[in-house]
Design a protein that fits this description.
Length: about 375
C-alpha cells in the first residue's frame, strides 16, 4: 500500500487545493490544469486528493466500475445480465488514482476492440484501457504539455461527455468514463496549444511559497513524514476524515443548489466584459460556483461563489496582448473582479433588486472607455 502525504497537511497553495476539491465534488466541471515550477506540490496534491475521496460502491466483477445505483449508466453486458435477473454482488472500495504516462498511446488510453475475434466468431470483445480504470476516480496526467495533442484532445472530449466510445471497422463499444481530470505541467517545458488550454475547465498557476515561516513549516512537516510516515498520517487522520465527510455532504447537497437570473447576468457580464471567446467559461463559472456553494453549506450561489469560480475559470482564457505577460493578465482579472464585487456590495447596501448591466451594455461601455 502506497504511503501518501495527507492533503490537509499541504502548506499553502489554497487556490490549487480549492480547485481540486471543487472538481471532486462536481467532476462535470471539466478538470483542472495546474501550472507551476518544480517542487510546488502539484503531484503530491493530486495523489492526496484521491486518498481522501469518499469510498464508492461497485459491482464486484465489473472492470468499468459502473455505479450500481445508476442502471442507466451500465455497459451493455451489465444491462443484459440485469435483464436476465442476475443479482450483482456489491462491494465498497476506495476511489482509484490512475496515472496516465506521457508515452501512452490512444489504444492504451481508450481500450481496444478485438476485430479478428469479432469477424471470425461474431463475438465483440473489448480490452479496457486507462479510461475504464479511471471511471469514478481520479485521472492524473503529469507533464500534460508533453502528451500527444491528439491524446489530450481525446481525454478532454471523454471528460466532457462522461462516456468513452471506441469504434473500429464498423464495430463500436462504449462505457461510462466520469473522472476527476487533473493535469499538471511546468510552463518552462512548453505550453499547451490555446485550443487545448481552453478545454481545461479550471486552471491554477502555483509558485513557491515565499513566506519564511510557511517554508519552515513545509520543512518540518516533510521531515516528520519521512521519519514516521504512519505516525504522521495517523496524526492528520481527523482532518482528512473531516474533509472526506465535507466532500460527501457537498455532493449530496449539489443537485439542490439554486441560482437566479441575476446570478446568470453577473456571470455573463463579467465574462463578456473581459472579451473571453465562446461560452465555455460562463458554464464553467456557474458549475464551479454551485460546487463551492455546496461545499460551504449554502443552498444558493452568491456573488462570492461566482468571484471564486471566476478566479479559477478565467486566467487561462484571457486574451493577452503582445508583450503582456501572465502577471499583467492576472492583474487585469483581479481588477475586474474587484469592480464586480464593489458593485455587488453597493447594490446590497442600497437594497437594489435590479440585475447588473447586460453584457451588451457593458461591452458598449468598454468600447467607450
Amino acid at each position: 500500500m502506497a504511503v501518501i502525504f495527507p492533503f490537509t497537511a499541504i502548506v499553502g497553495q489554497d487556490r490549487m487545493k480549492r480547485a481540486l476539491i471543487l472538481n471532486a465534488i462536481y467532476p462535470q466541471i471539466g478538470g483542472v490544469l495546474i501550472r507551476g515550477e518544480r517542487g510546488t506540490a502539484k503531484s503530491t496534491a493530486a495523489r492526496a486528493l484521491a486518498a481522501i475521496l469518499p469510498e464508492i460502491d461497485v459491482i464486484e466483477d465489473d472492470p468499468f466500475s459502473c455505479d450500481p445505483a445508476n442502471p442507466a449508466g451500465f455497459t451493455e453486458d451489465l444491462k443484459r445480465r440485469a435483464a436476465a435477473g442476475e443479482q450483482f454482488k456489491i462491494v465498497r472500495r476506495k476511489t482509484r488514482f490512475v496515472n496516465l504516462p506521457v508515452s501512452a498511446t490512444e489504444d492504451r488510453v481508450v481500450g481496444t476492440l478485438d476485430i479478428e475475434r469479432a469477424i471470425q466468431k461474431g463475438e465483440r470483445h473489448f480490452e479496457p484501457g486507462i479510461l475504464a480504470a479511471a471511471n469514478r476516480g481520479v485521472l492524473y496526467v503529469d507533464e500534460v504539455n508533453l502528451l500527444d495533442d491528439h491524446v489530450v484532445d481525446l481525454l478532454l472530449d471523454v471528460a466532457a461527455m462522461g462516456v468513452n466510445v471506441v469504434e473500429r471497422e464498423g464495430i463500436s463499444f462504449s462505457h461510462p468514463a466520469r473522472f476527476v481530470l487533473i493535469g499538471s505541467m511546468n510552463p518552462e517545458e512548453g505550453d499547451l496549444r490555446p485550443q487545448l488550454l481552453d478545454r481545461f475547465a479550471l486552471c491554477v498557476d502555483v509558485t513557491s511559497v515565499r513566506d519564511p515561516q510557511a517554508r519552515m513549516l513545509i520543512l518540518e512537516r516533510n521531515l516528520a513524514f519521512e521519519s514516521d510516515p504512519v505516525g504522521f498520517i495517523k496524526a492528520w487522520e481527523p482532518q482528512e476524515r473531516a474533509l472526506t465527510q465535507e466532500i460527501a455532504q457537498a455532493r449530496e447537497r449539489l443537485p439542490n443548489i439554486r441560482h437566479t437570473q441575476r446570478d446568470l447576468a453577473t456571470i455573463a457580464n463579467l465574462v463578456a466584459s473581459l472579451g473571453v471567446d465562446g461560452h465555455r467559461a460562463d458554464l464553467v463559472i456557474l458549475k464551479t460556483a454551485r460546487a463551492h456553494a455546496a461545499f460551504v453549506g449554502r443552498d444558493a450561489i452568491t456573488d462570492q461563489d461566482i468571484l471564486l469560480a471566476a478566479e479559477l475559470a478565467l486566467p487561462h482564457r484571457l486574451k493577452r496582448h503582445p508583450f503582456q505577460d501572465t502577471e499583467q493578465a492576472m492583474a487585469m482579472l483581479s481588477e475586474k473582479l474587484q469592480q464586480i464585487e464593489q458593485q455587488a456590495q453597493a447594490q446590497a447596501s442600497n437594497g437594489a433588486q435590479q440585475p447588473p448591466p447586460t453584457p451588451t451594455e457593458n461591452a458598449k461601455k468598454a468600447r467607450r472607455g
